User: Fold these one by one.
Assistant:
Number 1:
Amino acid sequence: MTTFTGHGHTGHERPTPPAEIPLRHDWSIAEVKALYELPLMDLVYRAQSVHRAVWKENKVQLCSLLSIKTGGCPEDCAYCPQAARHDTGVKAEKLMQVNEVLTSAKEARDAGATRFCMGAAWREVKDGPQFDSVLEMVKGVKALGMEACCTLGMISETQAKRLKAAGLDAYNHNLDTGESHYGDIISTRTYQDRLRTLSFVRDAGIEVCSGGIIGMGETVDQRCEMLVTLANQVKHPESVPVNALVAVEGTPLEKQKRVETTEMVRMIATARILMPASMVRLSAGRLQMSEEAQLLCMLAGANSIFFGDRLLTTSNPEFAADMALLEKAGVKPLEPSTDTPVQQ
Ligand code: SAM
Ligand code: DTB
Ligand code: SF4
């Protein structure tokens, strides 16, 4: 059954920041580094002030993530357990069936997710039956009344338009790290390839979800470099995931030290100050963080988490633990948009 509860608007309303918080696109690395290196309390105070001025309500969006095509990826991303060339124990699987994906989306919605993100271990999207199935998945997720997001690797201008026509709200495509560090992490594609896909997504009218990972041996300058690239685009990405590296055995980054809480908080706070109206997503790495660390990230401006026991191939905190944490902190989940068509 499809019930229309409004005018078919999709996605959550974006806040309009007050005049004293301009959306700037002219940041320099030095300026951003000066923010990043502020005494932690000053940085968090500034980030929380921006956050409160823009996001009036104390809410966090619950998003669900599903790996619709796992493993066997031809790319060589040093952090990724799904790269075929890394011996991580992740087996290559086929693209999931549309109905299996929609069953999982419905379960996630019923558990409180308002956004469903589908990830595929592809270098790029190839036209044909697989892409057609992904378009069906997007349509099905929209019919369930959720925001639909996917991350499929590089896409062309035409593919972006087809995803938009299917109803896709957002496309996730991370810059991952600063341009000067990129070659140390990935050799099978360039930063320009990444930026080109982002421009196709933006020009097709799909929201951009783009952020990165910290803890891959980058310097603070390189973290700030990535934030500057994100913030200085013609439009801020509507959504900025900040991931702490999950160091997976068998990847070249398996021996990296766990990211410290203060670093995660600094990264999130700086992203919040630079991109006041963007959703800042506390993404991978929560399982390795204490409850207090996660709350500090929210205080610093993170307003979204992935919930459910699994990210793509690695574990995430348990559902009950997440719900208990939000409850203890009095943080409310962002409700589903009231005016999207909903299939029961
Ligand atoms: N293949 C597509 C791509 O690379 O854009 C989509 C899937 S890829 C797994 C999505 C994102 O997951 C990556 O860009 C990266 O930021 C994040 N990711 C992958 N492995 C990770 C890890 N071990 N720790 C933290 N983030 C990770
Ligand atoms: C993002 O920035 N983080 C998510 C989502 N976008 C697709 C993925 C995290 C993956 C962590 C490693 C894994 O579980 O395989
Ligand atoms: Fe492939 Fe994406 Fe993993 Fe890179 S991050 S190896 S492109 S799945």
Number 2:
Amino acid sequence: LVIVLDFGGQYNQLVARRVRECNVYCEIYSYKTDLEKIKAMNPKGIILTGGPNSCYEADSPTYSKELFELGIPVLGLCYGAQLMMHMLGGKVEKADAREYGKTEVIIDKTDSKIFEGVSPKTICWMSHFDYISKVAPGFEITSHTENCPCASAENVAENLYAIQFHPEVLHTQEGTKMLYNFVRNICGCAGDWRMDSFVEDQIKAIREKVGDGKVLCALSGGVDSSVAAVLLSKAIGNQLTCVFVDHGLLRKNEGDEVEAVFGPEGPYELNFIRVNAQERYYSKLKGVTEPEAKRKIIGEEFIRVFEEEAKKIGAVDFLVQGTIYPDVVESGLGGESAVIKSHHNVGGLPDHVDFKEIIEPLRDLFKDEVRKAGLELGIPENLVFRQPFPGPGLGIRIIGEVTADKVRIVQDADAIYREEIAKAGLDREIGQYFAALTNMRSVGVMGDERTYDYAIALRAVNTIDFMTAESAQIPYEVLNKVMSRIINEVRGVNRVMYDLTSKPPGTIEFE
Ligand code: XMP
């Protein structure tokens, strides 16, 4: 285990992901975590992350100095590096100019273990105002840049390493190598964190925990709940019941696709219940136009439908949740990151389902690890690489009132869009893309006839974390083809527009 001690920087999850890419398991903890707790976890290494503060200011995040005296290798990154120097007797000061962006770093100590296999001059990502003007006693400078006398330093005898730049960011070309050197060579981690062992261990753990108990799972067809369901099915077979609520706001044919995989004709042993609640949802949503009201109705209705099904099944021992690690960190339980978005998973927990305990088998995984686990479990690729789809579904991609006819329009347009994106080979490249139905109707001409129909908006964004995003640059020919197909094939549409807005100020979804 490596511990990533979070000082509130923006790349903290990235640090943890990179460490795991080195096949080393790590967890993120807030800098407020007690030293005794850290010691009790017996980590092989500790990484201090960046953060927005200045370490010499009185109320800035800090840590017990004893952390550096445990003999456990410590790597400080950016703020973490400055804090290490500051606390151990070096000096950190405000620089005249901020060093920001891709920067050439010149390695002074080429035999430093951190830089093993790294080029003597290497491009790194810098982002700092403060700089280390004097290293702490016992430390040696191991690299510098044109503007920064100390880009990294180390005290080998004490196992302490400091790096001013961000090896976790992809712009640091040899950053992963540096982190690998730290966790594998300096900390001596074995590198046995692999998805096949995760899957095996989880199956064993689930069997032990569940015994001959009954388990209930809400299956949405998304990646997380699908992987969780298959994991449980492999562990406990038909002690598992999955309830799949088709709320009529899914993508075209999606309900049937989910049923094909998880239903009785599919390869998995489990009890599958599909609830066709389309009409029920449409009637609840009739006349409702306000986005939050729509979201609320969809979420609450989901809980009600689920509860009704659960009642038929009777008491169960466990309820499965598809929580993944970023959910844990973002809800403020893991690291120091502020609560960034309140969790907009459908609904929340049902109040009236009779269960004793929750099982969250994916709680420790990042999204890409969930996908790897999915592949390891033999789940079809098109399901594993399915793009994110919001819980409220097409309900928030139809601006204004939702009707069955509008659902049909947006489903058909979206299916064409996805088909053409896949044909152009862009489907794994673009972060998220979909068609939405604007509530706008306008005049057009088709054949010799005047039309007065809806406008479809196409959205496509590239993003790392879905908190910021930029519109994707889809080739014009592809957009043109999509436009002409939608207008020709989807009744009720006479205009197609491409949404260029980035996030912020826009959000990815329309409502
Ligand atoms: P926004 O629209 O907030 O979307 O920029 C960011 C990401 O979150 C997804 N999203 C949701 N996912 N339930 C979900 O499970 C929701 O209510 C919800 N709203 C937005 C959205 O698809 C995008 O990936």
